[in-house]
Amino acid sequence: MDLKSNTSPVVTDPAPMTQSRLGIHSALMPYSPTGATFSPTLFLTIPRKKPGILDDVRSNTWLDAMKSSSPTHSKKNKDSNAELTANESDLAYRIWMLKYPSALSSFEQITNYAKGKRIALFLDYDGTLSPIVDDPDRAFMSGAMRATVRNVAKYFPTAIISGRSRDKVYDFVGLAELYYAGSHGMDIMGPVRSVSDDYSCIKSTDKQGKEVNLFQPASEFLPMIDEVFRSLVELTKDITGAKVENNKFCVSVHYRNVDEKSWSIIGESVDELLKHYPRLRLTHGRKVLEVRPVLNWDKGKAVEFLLESLGLKNCDDVLPIYVGDDRTDEDAFKVLREGNKGYGILVSSAPKESSAFYSLRDPSEVMEFLKCLVSWKKSSGFSN
Ligand SMILES: O=P(O)(O)OC[C@H]1O[C@H](O[C@H]2O[C@H](CO)[C@@H](O)[C@H](O)[C@H]2O)[C@H](O)[C@@H](O)[C@@H]1O
């Protein structure tokens, strides 16, 4: 193992000053701890005191955010406070699809655009390749999905980008021919290729002994994340159904199996604990609170890193496609949309705002879409 250099995208605790509602003041200047050299493009500044750590909460309270964190949570009609009927939900979904058309019914449009281009595929895991289940340790993907992903990877460079630890998502997927990014992109194993100096990579070997590049921008957070993981296990041990998952560079606090009456206790406990860790922040997933380093790094940045590692960055003839279901996938959708680079496909069975271009209802439609890509590639005689 050969350590190339030791740069870090982390900025720690600057001097106190006024803060925005989200806890990060736009006027804060990057601050480097002694001795470290940083790339300014990777910085996030961290305020010493934060009014609220739930930085991606778009609703009024974190309890609202917890309630709205999964499309399976029943929707209320604002006026009557009654739950939407099946017909109303279906209509709402169909109206929503005018804005986010099905990637299956728009397949011809997608492939017309892809003609003459090299597709690079980025796939989220939970809720995209495997259905959402109550026990996070049992979120297995089906054999059919595995075969489909294996097949698609024969034709297109394919990477999995997950909130899980890289090892765990690899164990679930089990395909050596893919690239993997765990911990919401904070742990990437990619091909050996020179990448820009912004990225400080470690040369390593994968499970098959092949030489790879390892990029772990949050490595200095490991001891802190371990400590927080242990505290969260202790804090939630008496809450029936709560589960804390160590995802290496981030921690997930699951409340899917917790009685809704106890959700506020979970939220408060995490909130209280994180007051002692200003270098960590909280984001929301599907019935899960995600504790992660304050770092200007996310799934969008991971896509850019992987494109560069694969020699596909800034190439007019490359079409990246990212398929995901979670709020954390929005960072990747944004990168593709803003740079007009490629397509985000949101997996959702309920209407929600997104930066994706297209939609798919569930993992079975994802599988269908991947199969269509393979058939299209085969029928186009590999000329595209
Ligand atoms: O980025 P992803 O691959 O989508 O990972 C996001 C989180 O997924 C997992 O939690 C979610 O799926 C579980 C299994 O279906 C479900 O029980 C849970 O409620 C969901 O939030 C995973 O356990 C988390 O660690 C990931 O961060």
Tell me what the structure shows.
The protein is of the alpha/beta class. Among the domains are: 91-190 and 297-382, Rossmann fold (3-Layer(aba) Sandwich), CATH 3.40.50; 221-293, Alpha-Beta Plaits (2-Layer Sandwich). The chain has ten helices and 14 strands. The chain has a ten-stranded mixed sheet, sandwiched between helices. β12 (318-324), α9 (330-338) and β13 (343-347) form a beta-alpha-beta unit. α4 (143-155) runs parallel beside α10. The chain is globular. Residues 1-60 have low confidence and may be disordered.
**Proportion of beta-strand residues:** 15-25%
Assigned CATH class of the domain at 91-190 and 297-382: Alpha Beta
Integer-rounded radius of gyration: 21 Å
Helix vs. strand class: alpha/beta
CATH topology of the domain at 91-190 and 297-382: Rossmann fold
Shape descriptor: globular
State the low-pLDDT regions, or none. Answer: 1-60
Identify the CATH architecture of the domain at 91-190 and 297-382: 3-Layer(aba) Sandwich
Per DSSP, the total helix count is 10
The whole-number mean of residue pLDDT values reads: 83
Protein name: Trehalose 6-phosphate phosphatase
Family: Belongs to the trehalose phosphatase family.
Catalytic activity: alpha,alpha-trehalose 6-phosphate + H2O = alpha,alpha-trehalose + phosphate
InterPro entries: HAD-like_sf, HAD-SF_hydro_IIB, HAD_sf, OTSB-like, Trehalose_PPase
Short account of what is shown:
A ten-stranded mixed β-sheet has the order 1-6-7-5-4-3-2-12-13-14, sandwiched between helices. It has a four-stranded antiparallel β-sheet with strand order 8-9-11-10, with helices on one face. By secondary structure, the protein is of the alpha/beta class. The chain is 29% helix and 17% strand.
